[in-house]
Amino acid sequence: MAITTISSRELNQDVTRAKKAAKNGPVFITDRGKPAHVLLSIEEYQRLTKQRRNIADSLAMPDAADIEFEPQPLTIEARPADFG
């Protein structure tokens, strides 16, 4: 995995270069010499976020209404207690 660092100015001048570099690894974008943003391919972003996403995080997202969630019905049956 290659890590690329470019300035905000370079990004503005050549977005295509940054997008191509993101296919090979993260692209750190600097503002005044300090890392400010990271550009990732969508595949890498999805790989990273799948491991950490839970239902609470998903519901907190602005587009939570677009998430399909159909839990299976839960049936709970009473049984006699076994004290033996």
TrEMBL record:
Pfam families: PhdYeFM_antitox. It comes from the Bacteria. InterPro entries: Antitoxin_Phd/YefM, YefM-like_sf. Transmembrane segments: none annotated. Antitoxin component of a type II toxin-antitoxin (TA) system. Belongs to the phD/YefM antitoxin family. This is Antitoxin.
